[in-house]
Amino acid sequence: MIEKITLENFKGIGKETTVRLAQLTLLFGANSAGKSTILHALAYAREIFERHNCNADKTILGGDSLDLGEFTEIVHKHNPQGIVRMKFDFAFVQRRIMKANRLPYTPEKGWIKIEVGVPRYHKKFQDTRNYPCALFMQVGIDGKPLVELEYCSSDTVRGGYQGRVRRLNVDHPAIEDEREAYESLFPFHEQLAFREGESDEDKLSNNEPNLNVLDYHYLRGRHALPEKSRIPPLQLRNGYQLKRPGGGFIPTPGTLNLLISRAITELLDLLTRMVYVGPIREIPARNFSPQRTEEVSRWAKGLGAYDVLPALEKEWEQINNDLSKTGDEYLDTGYELVYIPRNYEFDGSGKIDLSKHYFPTKTKTYIENLELDDYKQNFPRDEWFGLFDIKRKVLVQMHNVGVGLSQIIPLVVCMAKNKGQTLMFEQPELHLHPKQQAAVGDLLIRAAQSGTQIIAETHSIHLILRVLRRINETFRTQTKTAESFTRDDLKVLFARSVEGTTDILEVAVGKDGEFLDGWPDENFFEQELKERLAIC
């Protein structure tokens, strides 16, 4: 899970800003205050690490719905000479793989910091090309920096373009087995130690040593990122060897290589397992045909939900419980979601074979009780998406019900289908009645309790009050169960615009679900009271 994001010079954010994430993170703020910045940063990071694309416009994650423009639209104040900095702190969830690699050190936490800019604006790189790339990448393990890689525009030894190690923490316990070898190979290694408060001027100067004998493979586009398909990423130049403390030689920096590769793989895995559902979800056409190959960007407009419906099995029960069950914690829409497959099988009576195809409880009862003549006249004969109206006992098209239902269905399907992943939602409460907006809070809580990380941008007072109520209920019972939800499971972030820049605050929540320092916007919770007092 990504636990913390630090941004600098990214879109509306100027100065370095760190936000902590939880299993459920809720983003609030006025329109155009920068609530979406966190979502955009994650989408941009995926472009960088998966496609090495630092000049991203349309994204893998959101397609047309999440278009970042290009680097000059991404960098703060559209300054092409600026450097975008992003740092992602995460927990290693694949520690068993580390053990399988027989590493002498098994990390629990890590970070990757990436700095993106245009080389031509920085004399250090002696490069006239006018495209953004990753200038620096830093890897940290268990609270300490390990290594920093640097963009290098030329390499007179090998020819072409190579990268190099700029900083190396030889005292890091993770590479203790190779420490003596590095100290022997690099007698000036003390100068390569990480420095507190290092300025941009120092970092971009040409007056510092670097490990020229320790190169790493470049990927296309020449970034400060190892080629992900090349293992090991770091290699010694010809004529150099790492001496093994017990005798013999280490052909490549083994432990260091594995840690760099594992950190990148870990972060990339988290980024590629993200799903984004945007603020405007399309209603499928009457003749909608699902796309058989799942494409993550189709979730942005909600259509990804209908693409996956034909392949769902056990998820159906959760989906229809969330939609149709009664009670505060469910949406209680009065409808069940129905999918009728193409070329379905018939039973002996001439109806669809209910033993071969899934239908929600009330829809199934409706089909069982339907007279054969009515069935032949009204029941769809081919693939069909729609709803069963529980009160009227009739199948209806999506277009024939309120828009709110079509807006929440993609989120309900997304949470049922993509468990254990990171899901990013914009305005999950869109077009819903206040009672149902509150129920969305319970849906998000249940997803978080199942191991899914939820990051949701919202304007709903009803949603946040329901989440705080559940924290209070756990506090009052003093008993923690699998269904408990505490303040440790929640982060509330508030975005505001201050002198043209985005400032993101963490709103502290007490154990009892109360805000410890109040709410930073007097026009949110107090607005209803103001309107009531105006009437009086």
What does this entry look like structurally?
- This protein is α+β, with helices and mostly antiparallel strands.
- It folds into two domains: 77-272, no CATH class; 274-459, P-loop containing nucleotide triphosphate hydrolases (Rossmann fold, 3-Layer(aba) Sandwich).
- It is built from 14 helices and 22 strands.
- It has helices at residues 37-51, 71-74, 95-100, 179-185, 200-203, 254-272, 303-308, 315-324, 361-369, 372-378, 403-417, 434-449, 461-477, 526-535; strands at 2-8, 17-20, 24-29, 58-59, 63-67, 84-91, 109-117, 133-141, 144-152, 162-168, 211-216, 234-236, 242-243, 249-250, 274-277, 335-340, 384-389, 394-396, 422-426, 453-457, 490-498, 501-507.
- Strands 2-1-6-7-8-9-10-11-12 form a nine-stranded antiparallel β-sheet, covered by helices on one side. The chain has a six-stranded mixed β-sheet with strand order 15-19-20-3-21-22. Strands 16-17-18 form a three-stranded antiparallel β-sheet.
- The chain is globular.
Which helices and strands, and how do they pair?
Layout: E1 2-8, E2 17-20, E3 24-29, H1 37-51, E4 58-59, E5 63-67, H2 71-74, E6 84-91, H3 95-100, E7 109-117, E8 133-141, E9 144-152, E10 162-168, H4 179-185, H5 200-203, E11 211-216, E12 234-236, E13 242-243, E14 249-250, H6 254-272, E15 274-277, H7 303-308, H8 315-324, E16 335-340, H9 361-369, H10 372-378, E17 384-389, E18 394-396, H11 403-417, E19 422-426, H12 434-449, E20 453-457, H13 461-477, E21 490-498, E22 501-507, H14 526-535
Parallel strand pairs: 3-20, 3-21, 15-19, 19-20
Antiparallel strand pairs: 1-2, 1-6, 4-5, 6-7, 7-8, 8-9, 9-10, 10-11, 11-12, 13-14, 16-17, 17-18, 21-22
